[in-house]
């Protein structure tokens, strides 16, 4: 569904980085003597994430700014974000460099079940990379549902369901988007197993283009603002 727009965002972002680094290269060439110093600065500027300038860290919560398209570490953000988990896509964040008031904007939205499943599997995948087990498929019943159950309040503004009927909703969401968001395999011992169709965890981000189209975000002279 959103594969096309994600792809076009990525290309736009890559082009930005490319043109930025070109500009910086010509500046550093002018700088001449300092070119060595400038070069080491180019790489961090080209990545250009967060106020701290450090790279992404997939083990912690990071938010993407809707305006400058840079990632910000939770620990570098002043706004009281509340409980979140990594790889969420149901939020709007504007960094203080982009905000007309100089204050960060943050809003967490309800996450539809497919998004919660995606966030859950991405976190399970990252944990598995970290602990060295390097698994790509996760049990719906033993891993995905328990993850969502544990982190429900962090993942969505939707009130926690009082009955377990959402277990079936998770299953439907996973099956509906096989070969779009998820991969599927039946394991004789663990039952249905699901993974990510796009294994690139760094590409998981809010669909700000869709929010702009839906009028939740407005593009103004000042940048992007909440509608
Ligand atoms: Zn930072
Ligand atoms: Zn920004």
TrEMBL record:
InterPro entries: ASH2-like_PHD (IPR049455), ASH2L-like_WH (IPR053835), Zinc_finger_PHD-type_CS (IPR019786), Znf_FYVE_PHD (IPR011011), Znf_PHD (IPR001965). Residues 18-32 have a biased composition (Polar residues). Keywords: Metal-binding, Zinc, Zinc-finger. Gene3D superfamilies: 3.90.980.20. It holds the Pfam family PHD_ash2p_like. The keyword Zinc-finger applies. It comes from the Eukaryota. Transmembrane segments: none annotated. The keyword Zinc applies. Residues 49-99 form the Zinc finger PHD-type domain. Residues 1-42 are annotated as: Disordered. One of its GO terms (molecular function) is zinc ion binding. This is Zinc finger PHD-type domain-containing protein. It comes from Euphydryas editha (Edith's checkerspot).
């Amino acid at each position: 569904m959103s594969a096309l727009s994600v792809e076009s965002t990525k290309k736009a972002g890559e082009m930005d980085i490319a043109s930025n680094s070109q500009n910086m290269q010509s500046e550093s060439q002018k700088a001449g003597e300092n070119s060595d110093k400038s070069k080491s600065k180019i790489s961090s500027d080209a990545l250009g994430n967060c106020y701290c300038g450090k790279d992404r860290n997939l083990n912690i919560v990071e938010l993407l700014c809707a305006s400058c398209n840079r990632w910000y570490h939770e620990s570098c953000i002043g706004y009281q974000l509340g409980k979140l988990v990594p790889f969420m896509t149901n939020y709007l964040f504007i960094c203080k460099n982009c905000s007309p008031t100089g204050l960060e904007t943050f809003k967490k939205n309800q996450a539809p079940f497919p998004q919660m499943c995606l966030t859950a599997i991405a976190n399970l995948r990252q944990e598995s990379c970290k602990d060295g087990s390097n698994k790509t498929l996760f049990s719906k019943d033993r891993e995905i549902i328990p993850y969502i159950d544990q982190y429900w309040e962090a993942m969505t503004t939707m009130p926690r369901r009082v009955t377990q009927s959402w277990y079936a909703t998770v299953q439907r969401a996973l099956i509906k988007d096989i070969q779009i968001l998820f991969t599927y395999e039946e394991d004789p011992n663990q039952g249905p197993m699901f993974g990510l169709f796009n294994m690139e965890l760094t590409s998981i981000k809010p669909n700000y283009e869709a929010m702009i189209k839906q009028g939740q975000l407005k593009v103004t002279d000042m940048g992007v603002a909440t509608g």
